[in-house]
Amino acid sequence: MNASSHSVDDTDTAAKSSFLLKRRAHNLMIFELHNPNIVQLALRLKDHMSQAPNLFKNTPTVLDLAPLEDGFKVIDFPALTSLLDNHGLTIVGISGGTDAQRIAAARARLALFSSAGHAPPTEPQANPAQAEAPAATPEVSPNEKPIEVAPACASNIADDTASNIVLRQTVRAGQQVYARGGDLIVEASVNEGSEVIADGDIHIYGTLRGRALAGARGRKDARIWCHNLDAELVSINGIYRTRDSIEPDLIGKAAVIEIQQEKLIIRPLG
Predict the structure, then answer these.
(1) CA 184 to chain centre
(2) 28 and 92 in contact (C-beta within 8 Å)?
(3) CA 20 to 30 Å from 146, out of 24, 45, 71, 91?
C-alpha cells in the first residue's frame, strides 16, 4: 500500500469521526408569553427578576405562544430574544403560536417545537409553512426505567416504583433529576447547585439546599415536603420563591410548600 492510499484512508476515518447525531431529552424552561409588548414586558421582567438576578443565568428556554393563538399579535422575535437573554433566558425555540408567528420565528432562526397540551416539546418542525404533524412517540424497551437524569448524574442514581422515582443518595451540585409523570422521593439531601423536578409531588427526607420544582407539567395541587428547608428555589406549577423571600423562621425547619389562592405558601410541617 503506498503513501497516497494511507492518506485517503486517514481522511475517510477522520471524516467519519467528525460528528455523531443523537437524540436526547433535555429539560427546558418554558416562558409562557401573554403580552408581546416589549416595553411592558421589559418593565415586568425588571421587577420580577430583581428578586433573584442570577437565578436564570444561561438557561435554555422555549417560548410558549399558546396564549396568543386566538389573536393576531405580531411578535418582534429579535427584540424579544435579546430582552430575555439579558435576564439569563436563552431562547432556543417556540411552541404553539399562529402560522404567521411560527413563520416569523423560523425567520429569526428559532427552532419550532410541537405543542400538545402541557407535554414537553419534542420534534422541531421541518417546514414552518406546512401543517404541524403529530410528534412521534419514542419507543421504550420493556426494561427501560422512566427516569430522566442530566449527564452529570450517574445512570443508576435512582430506582423507580410505577411512575414514581426514589433516590437513595444525595443529589449533588450540577445534577438534575426529573420524575416524569409521577412523584420524586429523595431519601437523602439535595445539595446547593442541584435541581430536582417532578410532574407530581416531591418528598425530601434530608436537607433541601438546591432547587425543587413540583407540578412541572401543570399540576396546581402538587406539593413539596422537606425535613430541612434551606432551598435556593422552590416552585410549583411555575410559581416560585427564592431563599431571600422565605420567612427566616422556616429556614432549617421541616416544611410543606403548596399553592393556595394562586400564591406559593410555605408552612411548618406538623
Answers:
(1) 16
(2) yes
(3) 91
* DSSP-assigned letters across all residues of 47-88: HHHTTSTTTTTTEEEEEE-GGGTTS-----HHHHHHHHHHTT
Residue 107 amino acid letter: R
Please check whether residue 225 lies inside any domain of the structure: yes
Same domain? 105 vs 183: no
How far apart are the C-alpha atoms of 31 and 219, rounded to whole Å? 17
The SS3 assignment for 103 reads: helix
Length of the chain, please? 270
Helix ranges (H only) for 94-216 are 99-107
Average pLDDT over residues 162-191: 88
CATH of the domain at 70: 3.30.70.260
Domain with 193 in it = 148-268
What are φ and ψ of residue 222, in 5° steps?
-70, 155
Strand ranges of the sheet holding 263-268, from the earlier edge strand across to the other edge: 158-161, 164-167, 184-186, 202-208, 224-229, 255-260, 263-268
pTM of the predicted model over 0.90: no
Element (H, E) at 218: none
CA distances from 22 to 19, 25, 26, 222 (A): 10, 10, 12, 33
Task: Examine residue 137 and state whether it is found in any structural domain, yes or no.
Answer: no
Q: What is the pLDDT of residues 215-240, one digit of tens each?
A: 888 889 999 999 999 999 898 988 88
Question: Are 261 and 156 contained in the same domain?
Answer: yes
